[in-house]
Amino acid sequence: MLEKKLANQDCIRWPGKMPVSYIYTTGIAGEKFFKELKEKARISGTHCPKCRLVYLPPRLFCERCFSKLEQWKTAPKKGTIYSFTVTRVDLNGKPAEKPIIAAFITFKGFHGGIIHKIDEVLPEEVTIGTQVEPVFNDYKHRKGSILDIKYFRPV
After folding, report:
1. Domain-wise residue ranges, the chain
2. Alpha-helix runs per DSSP H in the chain
3. N or C: which end of the chain has fewer CB within 10 A?
4. In degrees rounded to 5, what are phi and psi of residue 149?
5. The pairing of beta strand 79-89 with beta strand 149-154
6. What does the angle CA 93 – CA 97 – CA 99 come to, to the nearest 5 degrees?
7. Which CATH class is domain 25-154?
8. What are 41-84's pLDDT values in tens digits?
9. 108-134 burial, b if ≥16 CB within 10 A, otherwise e?
10. CA 41, CA 131: separation in Å to the nearest integer?
11. Chain Cα centroid distance, residue 26
12. Angstrom distance (rounded) from CA 115 to CA 83
């Protein structure tokens, strides 16, 4: 079943429900990443001293040299929108109250990035290269998940 679709209208849609069950654990690196979000409201990644890469999301081993990663670095307060999309429907396929902007955000000196919502800006004002900063939930509402960041906003 190796088939490549080049046009959106040629994609196959599966109507109805597909039962899916899975167990996902954050692992050691993910646990520390989410603890930093919850406790200190900061984004962090793991550093490879050999390759000099800082991975975001963090991981335990370097994908290039297979070194064990034990050093952590805190990401800059500002990130950059590398790519984004705007949707006008919610997760249930119904019209959203307002357009939802999702972006892949990178941080200077970090390899990779995170995907999150962008807010406090109109969709037509968002561009690749826009500088953004995270808006965190109040400490008492943080749970140790990516949703401890409410959204990112332009700086």
Report:
1. 25-154
2. 27-40
3. N
4. -90, 115
5. unpaired
6. 80
7. mainly beta
8. 999 999 999 999 999 999 999 999 999 999 999 999 999 999 99
9. eebbbbbebebeeeeeeebeeebebeb
10. 18
11. 14
12. 9
